[in-house]
From TrEMBL:
Residues 3-149 form the N-acetyltransferase domain. Gene3D superfamilies: 3.40.630.30. Keywords: Transferase. It comes from Paenibacillus selenitireducens. This is GNAT family N-acetyltransferase. It comes from the Bacteria. GO terms for molecular function: acyltransferase activity, transferring groups other than amino-acyl groups. InterPro entries: AcTrfase_GNAT_prd (IPR017255), Acyl_CoA_acyltransferase (IPR016181), GNAT_dom (IPR000182). It holds the Pfam family Acetyltransf_1.
Length: 169
């Protein structure tokens, strides 16, 4: 199956809302999508098959660019279980890792959503804590965290490690 993952365009909004209504009715509206697009234009991805929208997802980044968030993901019911959700996770993680000061990536998950939890854990996300009434009364969420070693830290570790090995000899 040939699935394309690419950035969302404004003309995708209607299809995104239609798809969201199939899986999570009344969860998303055009106004909300416009806000995400204004805030995070390079962090909203779509999955298409033969020109048809079959999935979409969004990530976000805080003002300090130290905390990234996996905000939402949606895959058409007839395309679930085919790795599209994982590819959308990969796209968001890759985009978030381009922020040089990123330290953590966070995601909220309903603890009954075992498929999402399993997929996130496969990418290294670990349970951090539960938050009661996260989305309002009775709408609890589990918070998962993925620590990120940014490129500068990796360079520092690579540079320091050989020196400290030499010093200990």
């Amino acid at each position: 199956m040939n699935i394309q993952i690419e950035l969302v365009q404004r003309e995708d909004y209607s299809d995104m809302i239609t798809l969201a209504d199939l899986t999570l009715p009344d969860r998303m509206n055009k106004h909300e999508l416009k806000k995400y697009f204004e805030l995070f234009p390079n962090l909203i991805f779509k999955a298409t098959h033969e020109g048809r929208l079959v999935g979409f997802s969004c990530a976000g980044i805080d003002m300090t660019q130290r905390s990234g968030w996996m905000l939402f993901s949606n895959v058409a019911p007839d395309f679930q279980g085919q790795g599209i959700g994982k590819r959308l996770i990969e796209a968001r993680l890759s985009a978030l890792r381009s922020f040089p000061h990123l330290q953590n990536i966070w995601v909220t998950v309903n603890d009954t959503n075992s498929a999402s939890i399993k997929a996130l854990q496969a990418f290294g996300f670990q349970w951090s804590h539960d938050e009661t009434d996260y989305y309002g009364p009775g709408k609890h969420r589990s918070i998962y965290r993925l620590p990120v070693l940014n490129l500068q830290e990796e360079a520092d570790i690579t540079r320091i490690k050989p020196q400290s090995m030499t010093e200990s000899m």
